[in-house]
Amino acid sequence: MHELILMCFEFFKTGLFAIGGGLATLPFLFDMSEKYPHWINSAQLADIIAVSESTPGPIGINMATFTGFKVYGFWGAFLATFSLVFPSFVIIIIVAKFLNKYSDSEVIKSAFAGIRPAVVGLIAAAGYSVFKMAVLSGPVSSVYNILPNIEIASAFIFLTVLIAVHIKPAKKLHPIFFIALAAVGGIIFKL
Amino acid sequence: MSELFKLFTTFFKIGLFTFGGGYAMLPLIEREAVDKKRWITRDKMLEYFSISQCTPGIIAVNSATLIGYKRRGFWGAFFAASGIVTPSLAIIIILASILLRIDDYPYVLHALAGIRAAVAALITGSCIKLFKSNVKTVFDFIFCIGSFIAIAVFGASPVIVVITAVLYGLFLKRKSGGDVDA
């Protein structure tokens, strides 16, 4: 019970501070995995990201539901999603009441101008956590031992997908396509 | 049919059939709310989208909440938001209970290891796109790298980074505001 309340609080915090959509919740999820490793670890988080990108619905909601399910089954899933949505629901209703003032407000615009570049850095940090876990073998204590720890087959999948999402015909493909291909790659290379 | 029910089913449908998260949903929300149901005007819709992006939380859920609120007040907001979230809840709960049961089979383990490398690449790809559209000035660049280092190297809480970013935005505004006035 205590755990469940703690989890609700974590998702409430995520809902309140994650600005810029679903991916912006990622750094908060990784923060959770560090604070509460028995809830979820970073490898499981990567699986959750894959499932969330390959299923319908907003990615942020999918990730919260899955994480909550992992922590406390059905009620964990329900309460994680509820706690994630609750703060923005309240904020949106307040904003809707004072709508005209909000969207023209210089203060809001400039606060958001500061958030945008920071969010890119935050999501990149979450991406780096996935990278370390997926492409490197063993714990990486500093930047200097990244190179010798690279898993060749994983790095191959990583680079192939990274290049594919940037070149013309492939970049229109849905992420689910790359995820399926990587699953086949993982089985072939026995990762 | 009551409009509350319509709000729920419409957003339920959008939640069920859109892959690819918030940004992929916005055109669908626009088509349903503006063109088909005529709940709001296109101008209002664009305004709602921009508000949804600069308020905390999930963009698609925020847009649904705003439209629901505009139509039917609190309960409208409640039913619209519940509608867009319900399919995810159901699908993910089913998938998660299956996946957590099979995730120690060797083939599943290999497949998941491959998938993780792809996920790392997909996030890196999203970051490159986000970087191009959101990091314009030298200060933006410093701030972006700074928040990366704060999290990846020093393990700072993302809450602290977001609060610092808001203060930074307000500080820049005061500075540039002064310049413009002068």
Task: Characterise the protein shown here.
The complex is a heterodimer of chains A (191) and B (182). Chain A has helices at residues 2-17, 26-35, 42-54, 59-97, 99-104, 106-135, 152-164, 168-171, 175-188. Chain A folds into two domains: 2-135, no CATH class; 137-191, no CATH class. Chain A starts with a helix and ends with a helix. With 191 residues, chain A is mostly helical. Chain A has nine helices and no strands. The model of chain A has no long low-confidence stretch (mean pLDDT 88). In chain A, helix 3 (42-54) packs across helix 4 (59-97). Chain A is 76% helix and 0% strand. Chain B has 182 residues and is mostly helical. Chain B has three domains: 3-101, no CATH class; 103-134; 136-182, no CATH class. Helices cover 85% and strands 0% of the residues of chain B. Chain B has helices spanning 3-17, 21-36, 42-53, 59-102, 106-134, 138-152, 158-181. In chain B, helix 1 crosses helix 4 (59-102), helix 2 (21-36) packs across helix 4 (59-102) and helix 3 crosses helix 4. The chains are: A mainly alpha (191), B mainly alpha (182). Chains A and B meet through helix 1, helix 2, helix 3, helix 4 and helix 5 of A and helix 1, helix 2, helix 3, helix 4 and helix 5 of B.
Distance from first to last alpha carbon of chain B: 58 Å
Percent in strands of chain B: under 5%
Give a short account of the largest sheet of chain A: none
Provide the gyration radius of chain A in Å.
19 Å
Q: What's the gyration radius of chain B in Å?
A: 21 Å
SS element count, helices of chain B: 7
Helix content of chain A: over 70%
Strand portion of chain A, in percent?
under 5%
- Poorly predicted runs of chain B are 178-182
What's the helical proportion of residues of chain B? over 70%
Overall number of structural domains of chain A = 2
- What is the helix tally of chain A? 9
Q: Quick one: overall form of chain B?
A: flat
Structural class of chain B: mainly alpha
Largest sheet of chain B: none
